Fold:
Amino acid sequence: MISAQYLGMPLEINDLDHENLNYFAYCAKHEFRLQRCASCKLLRYPPTTACPWCSELVSEWVPVEGRGSVHSYTEVHHAIQPAFKPYTPYLVLLVELDTQSGVPTKEEGLRVIGNLVRPDGVLAPKAEVEQVGIGSRVRMVFTDIAPGLALPQWTIDETEAGGAPWRYRE
Amino acid sequence: MPLPREDVEATTPKFLRDKYAIVGVGETSYTRGSDKSTRALASIAVRNAMEDAGLKSSEIDGMLSYQFNDSVFSPFVAGDLGIRLNFYMDVFGGGSSTEALIGIAIGVIEAGLCKTVVIFRSMNGFSQVRIGGTGVRSAIPVSGDMMHSRAYGWQSAGQMFAPTFMRHMHDFGTTAEQVAHVRVAHSHHASNNPKAYYKKRVTAEDVVNSRMICKPLHLLDCCVETDNANAIIVTTAERAKDLKHPLVRIRGVVGRCCKPRADMHYQAGPISTVAGHYARDILWPNSGVSPDDVDLTGSYDAFTFTTMLQLEDYGFCKKGEGGHYVSDGTIMLGGKRPNNTSGGHLCEGYTHGIAMVIENVRQLRHDADDSCPIGPDGRRQHTYDYREGGCRQVKNAEVSANFGWAMPGTGSAMVMRRG
Structure:
């Protein structure tokens, strides 16, 4: 059982939730790993018990590069969780990993959720929030929450210039 | 005996088409602060539906409801009203439930488990468990699959659906101003609905100038949170012939049809496509009608965007043209195919979809409960003057379609017809 407080929320991963325990154990070491199906060899996200493509139960946790492009996003101005309010507007990013993009079919990809954060894992300030949109290049960093628990997050990838992202027009 | 070939691709065999009817509808008032338990609200709504149908408690023997751990269960409502049940079931779920439960009602009556089923949804969505996700809902621990959503401040319906809405704007150039016209239309309709919680007409400028909640949703792109209960009674059309209202027959239903990866549909794109893309291939063949045959729609409006996306993916316009469809006057009263003539969830009140079915039943009876005068025969004399405070009856309404929405990846649908 992993239990911690983060931004006013109790987070809990119970002892029976082996898939999430494994996933977050790697995150705690700042490693991003996903399950790879023993049968069809496809990676999957989020953690699941069986393979979404072939129903195989056996998988192994393999390292995956935490880089990708923003596939879609929302910019939250009215936070539901009170402890998020000081960080508004904050971004929730749906990031399509470079790994396995367009596989097994053109419209599929590993689309990993995260907030836009500073490299140290704290929710990004408004000036950075306003730079990011669909198409932005991002890299994974981790927000350390407690011993044994970290959340995978996204920060602007300074190594790639890229074109102007698509942003909601005010 | 083999099925006729044309039924192989249909989930509803043709012999069920038109065999069942909705014979009673009822609700409580729409408030913020009902001062009643969900048990009391449900009992009042079911009783109103029984009175509407002209059915006694002894003539109802089935009950279905849906909820999110926020409501009363069927045995208590049946007990309150003296209904002895031969069948009941209370299921977990929200906006994709009404049409799905109507399908289940047809199934259990057809299977001989009972004869007449009442379906209800009762909620104090403002004063107890707030539908927007604040209060008790946001206090529960984040665990399991929520570690990949709520832990990121990604939890309310608007926040969860927004990546679909944004991607539609990105992919097709859909604008906030176009989609704002859904609120405009529904607010005009609500102004002619004495039951509606918000009756004030708004403009597209009002919508896009209201404060941002989470992009692309402004405050007025979002529905209202209210306290209310609603009920629907389903039985065979044969039995319904003896009842007092014009028959409203069920042509076909789709229940909780899903995109791939219903657990996290964003893994399977295009994410600007919603479950209606799949559901339409069940709905239209089963119903034996096409979008062109439909006189009015009830497309779920938890948000302006949900109405638009479903009308597009069920095929009322080409893919990508939903923004144009909802802003060119088609969905307004007096337009070619009005949507949510009650004002819907954006304006009338939030009911997880059931009120949109109730509205279309009244429309198909030609008995929308607006402010038009009641004639000597006890029926409303509709003026078809849709100015503020006036009529909201759609002229010559014969066929309606409802599109329930749980999330972008899951939806339900139903076609009904008059007579």
